[in-house]
Amino acid sequence: MKSLLATLALTTALTLPGLAMARPVTLTTTLNSYGGDGAYLALYVTDASGAYMGSLWMAGTKSKYYEHLTDWYRATGGDTAQVNGITGASVGAGRTLEITLDLADALFDAGYTLHIDAAVEDMRDSPNEVAVPLTTAGAGTPVTGRRYIASFAYDM
Amino acid sequence: MRKILTLLVASTALTAVIGTTAWSAMNAAPDGSPRPFAAIWQDATQSLPLILASDDDDDDDESHGSRRDHDDDDDDEDCDDDDDDDDCGSGAPNPAPAGTVAPPQNGLFGNGAPPQVQVN
Q1: ipTM score for this prediction
Q2: What does the pLDDT look like over B10-64, one tens digit per residue?
Q3: What angle do CA B88, B93, B94 make, to 5 degrees?
């Protein structure tokens, strides 16, 4: 009986820190009715110095169009390994993309910024369409994009 | 032993007949008049037009060993930019869709639930 309790205590002790180090975060992006094809969106994070840290999501599955997500493409060199497993379909005009990710706690209140680059076929590219600091206080606060994004918010 | 000899003689005779025919067909007389067997060949070349096998692009399903055809009649797997299928392999490969592989180990993700996406 004692060994069972000890085992349970040990597994709990090992599991809790892991749970505490990440949390589900929902990223909600609503597009304007811009009257074009589906938009490609790259969601990625930079640190306080502006250096690329990694990607959170890629909306749009064809790599040949990624060069139009100019800031993301410049930061990554178009490396599709950056978005393996976090890629989905492009988003139509007027639609809302809702992504729930298990994100590290260390991303928040540490000077990181979430960026969104957007591109639409036969329309102007829009790098850095959204740039929003990742803070716990900023959760749930919608921000407006420059061209294609009507609103973006993250919720924890 | 006799059987072998018989077979050898028969095959030699057959070869001689075929060879003579072929030689005759390929060598015309100096005066231009065809020899007996060559006459058949000459007539054939003059009367029968050369018919090429069809090379149109209307077939939709036979690639004959190549990965895919590149005609303009179908709606899949060609090289134009208007379709929603694969491109022709230039540049980087398309990334793995969400749910097929784990997210990249870039320090941004925890080890918990996989990404969930919804478009409304």
Answers
A1: 0.78
A2: 777 776 666 555 454 444 444 444 444 444 444 444 444 445 454 444 444 333 3
A3: 100
First to last CA, chain B: 90
Give the count of beta carbons closer than 10 Å to the beta carbon of residue A76.
19
Q: What is the tens place of the pLDDT at every residue in A49-96? A: 999 999 999 999 999 999 999 999 999 999 999 999 999 999 999 999
Q: What are the residue boundaries of the structural domains of chain A, listed by start?
A: 39-155
φ/ψ (deg, to 5) at A74: -65, -40
Yes or no, beta carbons of B95 and A83 under 8 Å apart: yes
Q: Which of B97, B109, B119 is opposite residue A103, by nearest beta carbon?
A: B109
SS3 B100: coil
Put simply, whether B47 touches A (Cβ < 8 Å) is no
Comparing alpha-carbon positions, the chain A residue that sits nearest to B80 is: A64
pTM of this structure: 0.64
Closest Cα of chain B to A92: distance in Å? 9
